[in-house]
Specification:
two-stranded parallel ribbon, 7 helices
């Protein structure tokens, strides 16, 4: 070991002149036994140091907090839901515009494609783990908008009576009030139930068949009969699903009141 004048002893090495006793010098790796990094004047620890008392640690960029997966927007299921919504004006034009068998057939094809995308986006979301809060809003919103647009268009063409429109609209109004009450208490949208999906599927079958049944011919007559059967079942299940949602909402609101009652005064 060699000691230079004015220096300090480095284990196993040499000390260069002027290193010790510098009031604002830097300590190089290995001099004081600190693994890796330098101590800057004022005691601010740089990344890679052993933590110095009073220092400020800077987390590396790789340790940044990951985004919430439920907050994702750009996902395949969300894209399918947006595409489904984009087809709604086209559907309305086909039903209310030409009012021919060809236009009605294309409208039915569009409804079938919307129903297929509704099934597909759920499968993709589960398979690729792409569930998101936006998807939980878009998916049922697209379903309801298609149903509302379809029944209003069919009622305008006198294919279905307006009382059926009122029955389905009353269900939506009731659920809207319940959801608004939940939102005011800080709750998000309710989980879509299997009964609700089944009701939507029945109505998706019913209204295209009723639309095809609006024309003359044997096929149209069969489509009209089957369509009305599906419409009745779909409406009944639609209200059953509403009852399940209301029970779920009541349970959440009751739990919130219980929590407030057990809280500190």
């Amino acid at each position: 070991m060699t000691v230079q004048p004015g220096g300090t002893v480095q284990p196993g090495g040499t000390v260069q002149p002027g290193e010790a006793g510098q009031p604002s010098g830097t300590v190089q790796p290995g001099e004081t036994g600190q693994p890796g990094g330098t101590v800057q004047p004022g005691g601010t620890g740089q990344a890679g140091e052993a933590g110095q008392a009073g220092g400020t640690d800077r987390a590396p960029a790789g340790r940044a907090a990951e985004a919430d997966p439920q907050a994702r927007v750009m996902t395949i299921p969300n894209a399918l839901s947006v595409a489904r919504l984009a087809g709604l004006p086209v559907f309305l034009w086909l039903v209310l515009g030409p009012r021919t068998r060809t236009a009605d057939t294309w409208a039915v094809i569009l409804l079938v494609a919307a129903a297929a995308s509704d099934w597909l986006d759920g499968k993709i979301a589960r398979a690729l783990n792409q569930q998101s809060r936006l998807g939980q809003l878009l998916d049922p919103a697209a379903d309801r908008l298609y149903i509302v647009a379809t029944i209003v268009a069919l009622a305008i063409r006198a294919i279905i009576p307006w009382w059926l429109v009122g029955l389905l609209a009353a269900r939506e109004l009731l659920l809207g009030v319940a959801l608004a009450r939940l939102r005011s208490r800080g709750y998000g949208p309710l989980q879509v139930s299997f009964v609700g999906k089944a009701a939507t599927a029945c109505l998706y079958y019913a209204f295209p068949l009723l639309l095809l049944g609006a024309h003359a011919g044997t096929f149209s007559q069969i489509a009209r009969i089957v369509g009305w059967a599906m419409a009745i079942w779909g409406t009944a299940l639609y209200w059953c699903a509403a009852g399940l949602y209301l029970v779920q909402a009541r349970s959440l609101l009751a739990g919130a009141r219980s929590d407030r009652g057990n809280g500190p005064p």
